[in-house]
Amino acid sequence: MTKPILQVEQISLAFGGVKALTDVSFEVPTGSVFSIIGPNGAGKTSMLNCISGRYRPNQGRIHFDGRDVTKLKPNDRADLGIGRTFQNLALFGHMSVLDNIMVGRHHLMKNNWLTGPLYWASPAQKEELAHRREVEEIIDFLDITHVRKSVAGTLSYGLRKRVELARAMALKPKLILLDEPMAGMNLEEKEDMARYICDLNEEFGITVVMIEHDMGVVMDISHQVMVLDFGKKLITGLPEQVMQDEHVKRAYLGLEEDDIMQEAG
């Protein structure tokens, strides 16, 4: 069994009297694609926000790569290797594609306010060139070379999604959190994004935790699937096992008892 890179232990989260998550526990094996599915309002994005540090859970612990990160801030978790994309695009629309991606390298740069004024006479220039080379490799990997100098806000939705993925990759994460990476895409764009996710997982060795509503994609590229419903975990397992679970069929697929009995028959 692959050692887990992420361990979530009995996480509960509430906003006032509304419970977003209740006693949720799971493990994500290193090098896997782990999908979280469930109806709208099931707590999926709240879970990613707890893992990334945007939310502080009311109860429970989160361990990443053997370290308790429950109380760490988002930027500290990013330093440890947790990258993130968002359901709603969070790009700098007025900046170029290249500059947006370079933002993802910022925490890796050693240059500071002391060395900055000495840019041409310090290692800072070499450092920036090295970072730019790695960013160019990511741009090439995601097939966005033709728009690298374009203003991000002028791009199509599918291309902007790719730029956001590139920025998350630029952080050099061990774990990347993808919040509905294919939402709003047409079929061709979804196929491309699914391929990129598989490739970054297999070629770059990045573990993926993904929220996605397209069940065809989930079934095709996931190693494990967890189902949330009203903030509670229903089941975790292999995709084909999860989709055969009766509770999942009722809660997620909307099948009634008669439908399930008819399938069984």
TrEMBL record:
The answer to keyword Transport applying to this record is yes
Name one molecular function that GO assigns to this entry. ATP binding
What protein does this entry describe?
A: ABC transporter ATP-binding protein
| Species annotation | Ferrimonas aestuarii
- Fetch the PANTHER family from UniProt: ABC TRANSPORTER ATP-BINDING PROTEIN, CONSERVED COMPONENT OF ABC TRANSPORTER FOR NATURAL AMINO ACIDS-RELATED
ABC transporter domain: from which residue to which, for each copy?
6-255
Q: Which UniProt keywords apply?
A: ATP-binding, Nucleotide-binding, Transport
Instruction: Spell out the Pfam families in the cross-references.
Output: ABC_tran
